[in-house]
Design brief:
With 177 residues, the chain is mostly helical. The chain has one domain. 72% of the residues lie in helices and 0% in strands. The protein is built from 8 helices and no strands. Helix 1 crosses helix 4 and helix 5 crosses helix 8. The N and C termini lie far apart (37 Å).
């Protein structure tokens, strides 16, 4: 995902007029229609007891990321199934457990996500850092961490939901002489 796509979405979401609100409402509706499993998972996470900063950050980041993927990939972005979403969550949980059991491990789960989507994770970190800095005395860091985890799941799930190009052939494990 190019940073340009995220910047364009950020500009659109930053507009504050009647047309912008209509576009935002339309985007939420389209998100719920095209990615129902992901929308439900995000909705249940954001409907939990979160402080205002974490909640606003969660809505902004999850919508911005989906809009960027949708705008960049369009019809190449497939619907994420409940099974695929659970698989992403379980792989992150397993990765976290492995890293907790080996304190010498220098790579975190978000570093792995950053290898796949460096610009997206840079965008996310920029907004998380800004939210924490602007609301340092009021923000519940655990709530922000919960939102951050939901965003990581969304980024990975959407990344896996992009169809491979038609001319792309899966590499084989066979060696030829």
């Amino acid at each position: 995902m190019p940073l340009r796509a995220l910047s364009e979405v950020e500009e659109q979401l930053g507009e504050d007029d009647e047309k912008a609100r209509e576009r935002l409402d339309d985007a939420f509706t389209r998100f719920e229609e095209t990615q129902p499993a992901l929308a439900d998972r995000i909705s249940s996470a954001l409907n939990g007891p979160l402080d205002e900063t974490a909640l606003a950050l969660g809505y902004f980041l999850t919508l911005a990321i989906w809009l960027a993927f949708d705008g960049t990939f369009g019809d190449e972005l497939t619907e994420i199934s409940e099974t695929a979403l659970t698989g992403v969550e379980e792989s992150l949980q397993l990765d976290e457990q492995i890293r907790l059991s080996d304190p010498a491990e220098a790579v975190d789960s978000d570093d792995v996500v950053a290898m796949e989507q460096p610009d997206v994770l840079s965008f996310v970190h920029e907004h998380v850092d800004a939210a924490l800095e602007a609301n340092a005395n009021e923000v519940d860091v655990d709530d922000v961490h919960a939102v951050y985890r939901v965003v990581l799941v969304e980024v990975l799930a959407l990344s896996y939901a992009v169809k491979a190009p038609a001319n792309w052939a899966m590499p084989t494990a066979e060696f030829t002489a």
